[in-house]
């Protein structure tokens, strides 16, 4: 005797169930695909920090710029999109679903044009309390070395666990001040670079750094791992002498014994999903 979960019966039931799906009316199939095409709710997303600028001549033009609502555009579920051409086409035609940003799981991406507003206003002494819950922060490449701005903001980023640097692409050579174009699709994943990509992607610096004491040439050439080490070193050195900035509490994520920040440093890139090649066994319905 076999049970409903035995190997002899389970595959037949699964095949039959999918065959019945293809007999549903097209409009019902489309609704099912549309509802199921987004990534699972537990999948971390990306929230792009965007400035909502005040009117140039309106009654609120004297106020500092504030940010737009913090939302995540959920990426499509790649496993489901690879099921069939129908699932793929429905996902492309459907509006990208959004949900509120979750600071405990989602990545908050700070582009170049939002960096100073986020660090100075949102993370400032009179800033917004939700920043204390941010665990995953990503910075565009050109703002990865902005002196004391991030160390000061770290006074408020008490839960920060990972700091990602976002590069313009997964291959090639880029100046350290090259900007990162925002993806045309807001649901584009922000993926980790592979070990091979980190070794081959090159970041270079060739500029003059002006200080009160004179002008200093900055010239170097590094792969991604070397660049992340540089970012970490500069961040630590800028945090170390300023652990009690403005006579406030120490930076919450500073490890005094190890003389370092308790952070994981990561390298990421915006890259669209590649799902047009359907998985083995996928079919058109």
Task: Please provide a brief summary of the model.
With 285 residues, this protein is an alpha/beta fold.
Note down, in words, how this protein is organized.
Residues 18-107 form the 2EXR domain. By secondary structure, the protein is an alpha/beta fold. The chain has one domain (43-74, 98-270). The protein has eight helices and 15 strands. Strand 13 (254-255) and strand 14 (260-261) form a beta hairpin. The radius of gyration is 24 Å and the shape is globular. It starts with 9 loop residues before the first helix and ends in a 15-residue tail after the last strand. The model is unreliable at 1-16 and 278-285 (pLDDT under 50).
Strand line-up across the major sheet: 1-6-7-8-15-10
Q: List the helices and strands in order.
A: HHEEEEHHEEHEHEEEHEEHEEE
Count the domains: 1
Helix content: 10-25%
Strand content: 15-25%
Determine the structural class based on helices, strands and strand pairing: alpha/beta
Strands, count: 15
Largest sheet: 6 strands, mixed
Distance between the termini: 35 Å
> Which stretches are low in confidence, meaning pLDDT under 50 for 5 or more residues running?
1-16, 278-285
Shape: globular
Radius of gyration: 24 Å
Protein name: 2EXR domain-containing protein
Organism: Cercophora scortea
Pfam families: 2EXR
